[in-house]
Amino acid sequence: MSASEAAATTRDGPIPGFGFNPPTGPVAGFELIDLAALHERMPDGSLQRVHRVDFHTITLITEGRGEHTVDFVTYPCRPGTLLWIRPGQVQRFGRPGTMNGTHLLFTPTFPPHLAGTDRLVREWYGPVCRQLGTGHDHATLSALLDRVRAEFTRPDGTVSREILQLLLATVLLHIDRLPQPETDGDPRAGGEVYARFRAQLEHSYAATRRAEDYAHLLGYTVKTLTRACLAATGQPVKQVIDARVALQAQRLLAHTDEPVAVIARHLGFSEPTNFGKFFTRHTGTTPGAFRRTHHTAQ
Asked: Which residue from 169, 193, 215, 229 lies 20 to 30 Å from 99 (Cα-Cα)?
């Protein structure tokens, strides 16, 4: 991970972000490092400030206790905690020295192109945190990560990119078969319809909040989209759309200095007052009050 921050220029707005730029390693697009060593590499405290990444990270906590915050949710971490942070999510690491674990970093293009891994890498909305404890799932995942580490740390010139890709695919597919956290629903229950809808939503949430527009773009009826969203999340399609817009509004209010009127236009609202009503309806507070509570100086 690069130690330098760069302002984001994508639809996420100017939220500070890290690109994938680790020290020279045995293969491009992949790194394995202990969490404690990552903190030592970046002693300037940038990990403890709010930031985005444009790659995937998977962390299995092995020692200590602490916290990790992702998109306004703070997750307690202890041995057996599994974290998966996806590109575009906004996060903040806890205080260094409180816990350690195995930390995988990989670009979206690194895993092998298998149906299962392609789906997992595309999904930006999967579960962030699972508490595995010390049971069978934890033992299996730990053994897989040990195999990844053994390959990644082989002598120079003997590390196999293909073996690392296949081992990573095995890790991802194993995580996918873990029980879904109770609060997250099950995206798989929505099938291909839900997967296509979420991909379209990620590209179009700032352009339209109308369920009819998504149905037209995807060639479905609103009823079909609603059925898929209810199966995956327990919410109708309009609520899923509005929740994505509200999340982006929270990110921009908390982690940038853009005026509320600019954020409103960025998210497709013609008038700041309409944005204010929308935000209050979905979060229970006004944009200004939310910013005062959550704003982090960059």
From this structure: 169
In this predicted structure, which of 47-51, 103-107, 111-115, 234-238 has the lowest mean pLDDT? 47-51
Six token digits for residue 214: 């998504």
Give the CA distances from residue 25 to residues 22, 148, 153, 154, 155, in Å, rounded to whole numbers and listed in that order. 7, 14, 10, 11, 11
> How does DSSP assign 223-271, residue by residue?
HHHHHHHHHHHSS-HHHHHHHHHHHHHHHHHHH----HHHHHHHTT-SS
Torsions phi, psi for 255 (to 5 deg) = -120, 10
Cα–Cα distance between 170 and 141 in angstroms, integer? 9
**What is the pTM assigned to this prediction?**
0.81
Question: Is the confidence at residue 60, as pLDDT, over 80?
Answer: yes
pLDDT of res. 3: 31
Contacts of 241 (CB under 8 A, 6+ apart): 201, 205, 209, 211, 214
Cβ-contact 142, 82 below 8 angstroms? no
Q: Shortest CA distance to 214 belongs to which of 246, 245, 242, 241?
A: 241
